[in-house]
Design a protein that fits this description.
CATH superfamily of the domain at 100-165: SpoA-like
Order of helices and strands: HHHEHEEE
CATH topology of the domain at 100-165: Surface presentation of antigens (SPOA)
Largest sheet: 4 strands, antiparallel
Strand order of the largest sheet: 1-2-3-4
Number of strands: 4
CATH architecture of the domain at 100-165: Roll
Number of helices: 4
CATH class of the domain at 100-165: Mainly Beta
Length: 168
């Protein structure tokens, strides 16, 4: 296969459709941006930079499909209306939470003890708490206080009757 040099004119003098002439091909090669290597970086002048910037902005204009102004004023961002929607929202049934596991803790009271006192605890030892008998106990869910209640005994089991819900 024999490749023709693009700068050569056709021998028979006729051009095929769509082929550039030798002078057009040379002009295209001259206008094409040249890759910059380490030696060229030292010799880059203002005219070269302006030419590259013009080529970049022309390419940007083509990509956007119109003229891009460098002096365009930015417009402030506006949020959509953040007011509550007046239409009733579709609520998911509470049964969806039925399988969620949570840590429930009932706190009868607290005390502070030194390690020495803790090591001396035996079966039958009495630990005094900071609450009195009959005071409400605290009910915690996942470490957050949600309610207070009173201790009951039902069928030989301890139970808690909720007497107060604590708001956040």
């Amino acid at each position: 296969m024999n490749m023709a040099d693009p700068t050569d004119e056709p021998k028979d003098g006729a051009l095929q459709a769509g082929e550039p002439t030798a002078s057009e091909a040379k002009a295209d090669v001259a206008d094409a941006p040249k890759p910059i290597d380490a030696d060229d970086k030292k010799h880059l002048n203002t005219d070269d930079i302006e030419k590259l910037l013009n080529q970049a902005s022309e390419s940007l204009d083509e990509a956007v499909g119109g003229n891009v102004s460098t002096e365009a004023k930015p417009s402030p961002f506006s949020f959509n209306d953040l007011a509550a929607d007046s239409s009733p929202a579709e609520r998911a049934p509470i049964e969806l939470l039925g399988e969620v596991e949570m840590d429930l803790r009932i706190e009868l009271g607290r005390t502070q003890m030194r390690l020495e006192e803790v090591l001396q605890l035996r079966s039958g030892s009495v630990v005094a708490l900071d609450k009195l008998a009959g005071d409400p106990v605290d009910i915690f869910v996942n470490g957050r206080l949600i309610a207070r209640g009173e201790v009951l005994v039902m069928n030989d089991n301890f139970c808690i009757r909720v007497t107060e819900l604590v708001g956040a």
